[in-house]
């Protein structure tokens, strides 16, 4: 397994527009992309800090994964995403080492990335994402 960098940190928020204002006005970052990922029932906003992105996630529906997360745990850090050369290979390796997977194979995420998640039960409570640039 080789992780190339922390690609992004995903943060669950209730009000995307209010959160964007905070990141821009207080932290001085620039939101360079807002995107809906229908599949995940989320609207996302991206900021770049050095080589790492901040991905804000607002639920489009209460029963989506982010809606459920906020209901259980409140707003805050939702996941950490590592850039890898191959999501499929990294998933396979993690599974071979006994890690429980959420995704058995890569799927499309925001920003045309191929992504997959490891289950937080196997990763000391941190929802862990692998991602690679899509074609
Ligand atoms: Zn992510």
List the helices and strands and how they pair.
Layout: E1 5-13, H1 16-26, E2 31-37, E3 42-49, E4 52-59, H2 65-73, E5 76-83, H3 87-96, E6 107-108, E7 113-118, E8 128-133
Parallel strand pairs: 1-4, 5-8
Antiparallel strand pairs: 1-5, 2-3, 3-4, 6-7, 7-8
The protein binds zinc ion.
Describe this entry's structure for a reader.
This protein has a single domain, classed as 2,3-Dihydroxybiphenyl 1,2-Dioxygenase, domain 1 (Roll), CATH 3.10.180. Helices cover 22% and strands 40% of the residues. It has 3 helices and 8 strands. The longest helix is centred in the first third of the chain and has 11 residues. The protein starts with a strand and ends with a strand. Bound molecules: zinc ion (ZN). Zinc ion binds next to strand 1 and strand 5. The site of zinc ion has 6 residues, from strand 1 and strand 5.
A few lines on this structure:
The chain has an 8-stranded mixed β-sheet. It has 3 helices and 8 strands; from the N terminus they run βαβββαβαβββ.
């Amino acid at each position: 397994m080789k992780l190339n960098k922390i690609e992004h940190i995903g943060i669950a928020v209730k009000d995307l527009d209010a959160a964007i204002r905070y990141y821009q006005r207080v932290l001085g970052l620039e939101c360079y992309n807002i995107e809906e990922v229908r599949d995940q029932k989320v609207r996302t906003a991206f900021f770049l800090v050095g080589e790492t992105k901040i991905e804000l996630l607002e639920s489009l529906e209460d029963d989506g994964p982010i809606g459920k997360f906020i209901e259980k745990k409140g707003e805050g850090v939702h996941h950490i995403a590592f850039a890898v050369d191959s999501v499929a290979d990294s998933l396979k390796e993690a599974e071979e080492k006994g890690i429980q997977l959420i995704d058995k194979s890569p799927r499309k995420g925001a920003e045309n990335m191929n992504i997959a998640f490891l289950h937080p039960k196997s990763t000391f409570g941190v929802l862990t994402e692998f991602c690679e640039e899509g074609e």
